[in-house]
Amino acid sequence: MRGSSLGYLFKEGARNVWVNRLMSLASIGVLIACMLLIGSSVLLSVNMNNVVGYVEDQNEVVIVLEDDMDQSELDELDDELHDIENINNIVFVSKEEAFQNEKDKLGDAAELLREDDNFYPNTYRIKIDDLEFLDETVDEIGRLFGVEDVKAPTDIAETLTSVKKLVITMGMGIVALLIGVTLIIIANTIKITVFNRRKEISIMKYVGATDLFIKLPFMIEGLILGLISAIMAYFILWGGYSYLLSWLEENPSTWIQSMYGSILPFKEIGLKLFGGFALGGTGLGVIGSMIFVRNYLKV
Question: Shortest CA distance to 278 belongs to which of 268, 289, 267, 270?
Answer without folding.
Answer: 270
